[in-house]
Amino acid sequence: MLQTPIRIRQNKHMVCCDDFQNLVDQEFAQVHPKHLLSGGRILNDIDTDYFFVFGADRPSFVGMNYCPFCGRVVSRGLWNLEKKK
Ligand SMILES: [Zn+2]
Predict the structure, then answer these.
(1) 52-80 confidence digits (pLDDT tens)
(2) Where are the domains of the chain?
(3) Cα 70 to ligand 1 centroid, rounded to whole Å
(4) How many angstroms does the Cα of residue 1 sit away from the middle of ligand 1?
(5) Rounded to the nearest whole angstrom, what is the distance from the C-alpha of residue 17 to the centroid of ligand 1?
(6) Which of 68, 69, 66, 63 is nearest to 82 (CA)?
């Protein structure tokens, strides 16, 4: 199955930083609503749209609480905690 290399970057405005966007461009990560992820399994239970992607054919998704590059909070659980401070 061939996929078109041209992708619509409709999520670009949502990504926290260029380093993370770089990972998304290389398909090592995805920014996607959790309930819309398909074709793989989610390995942890963080309420986030930010996922690492491991494996191409049947990918495993690992949600993250923080961006590893800019350190911004990217999960709803931590957003809610920060709001209470
Ligand atoms: Zn970032």
Answers:
(1) 999 978 899 999 999 999 999 999 989 88
(2) 12-84
(3) 4
(4) 32
(5) 4
(6) 66
